[in-house]
Amino acid sequence: MNVTVIAVGRLKEHYLQDGCKEYMKRLKAFAKLSVIEVNEERCSDHPSDNEIQNVIKKEGSRILNKIPKGAAVIPLCIEGKEFTSPDFSSLIETISLQSSHICFIIGGSFGLSDEVKSQGKIKLSFGKMTLPHQLARMVLLEQIYRAFSISNHSQYHK
Fold it and tell me: Is residue 89 a contact partner of residue 143, using CB atoms and an 8 Å limit?
């Protein structure tokens, strides 16, 4: 299975970098993982609605250019569906029967464009609370690792 994570921005905090590296290392046992970072669009400290929409559009265009052909796309967004870890594992198993490539997408500070969201038949949410997009990356990598661990009857998920 090929898993791609497309994320807006770079990880800045060392603890997030370390956490992501750990789960990326663990995932090598189950899948070929690649993380693609697209540039975060800069804006003013107090952006107008138009400026926010411009940021979302530009980041969305960068994301769309990086989605692997034929991949099952799962954007992360607040209006997405929440899954338990076992259900998320089942989702990945089901997708793997139809596609050998899954692409998760994490937007920037203002979220994802509608065009990016429309690429996914399934949208994923970690809940109604807002997470910093850099932290969401580490949570996503851990949950992907947990999903593969569940599928492979590992002791990780207890």
Answer: no
Which tokens in the block code for residue 67? 């989605």
How many Cα atoms occupy the beta-carbon half-sphere of 44 within 13 Å?
7
What does the alpha-carbon distance between residue 73 and residue 2 come to, in Å, rounded to a whole number?
A: 12
Q: Which two tokens stand for residue 39?
A: 């540039």
- From first to last of its 158 residues, the chain has per-residue pLDDT tens of 999 999 999 999 999 999 999 999 999 999 999 999 999 999 999 999 999 999 999 999 999 999 999 999 999 999 999 999 999 999 999 999 999 999 999 999 999 999 999 999 999 999 998 888 899 999 999 999 999 999 999 988 77
Of 132, 141, 39, nearest in space to 88 by CA: 141
> Distance between CA 151 and CA 155 in Å, rounded?
11
Give the containing element (helix H, strand E) for 22. helix 14-27
